[in-house]
Structure formats: C-alpha cells, structure tokens
Amino acid sequence: MRYLSWLLGFVLFLLALGFAVKNSDTVMVNYYLGYQWQAPMVLVVLVFFFAGVAVGVAASLRFIFRQRREIFSLKREMRARAQAGKSNEE
Questions:
Q1: Cβ atoms < 10 Å from Cβ of 77
Q2: How confident is the model over 7-41, as pLDDT tens digits?
Q3: Which residues, at least 6 apart from 10, have a Cβ–Cβ distance to it below 8 Å?
Q4: Is the pTM of this model over 0.85?
Q5: 40 forms bridges with which residues in the sheet?
Q6: Distance between CA atoms of 22 and 16, rounded to whole angstroms?
C-alpha cells in the first residue's frame, strides 16, 4: 500500500509538471482601475488555487472553533455529572 501511494504521488507530480510545461505562456490578468499582472499561466493558476484554499480554510475556522468550544463544554459537563454520581453513591 505504501508503494502504491508513492506511485500515485509520483504520477500526480508528473501530471502537474506536464501541465506546467505545456502552459508556460505568459498571460495578462486585468484588475480594476487599470492594474495588470503578467505571469506564466501555471503561476496564475497556482496562485488563485492556493488563494481559494486559504479562503476556504479561513471560512471553516469559525465552525471548527465553535465545535471545539462545544466539545469542551460537553466534556466538562460529563465530568461534573460523573463527580455528582460518585458523591451520590457514597
């Protein structure tokens, strides 16, 4: 299984490398107010891909932290109930 995952990673790397070599032409990205950016197409695609990943992770952080707080409070409540159950048995 380990070799299969290494092989899959190597194949994905070769596909990405082939994409980068085939799309090395310079493209121009036009912004508002007349700003422009010229860069190889693969760089533009990678920049916007990682920007999308960063926005997605940032958007999910609020929900993750809310869940962690809820889990912490539920664990505290379980401990309190367990302590109350022990004191009632004695």
A1: 10
A2: 998 998 898 888 888 877 888 989 888 899 898 88
A3: none
A4: no
A5: 26
A6: 10
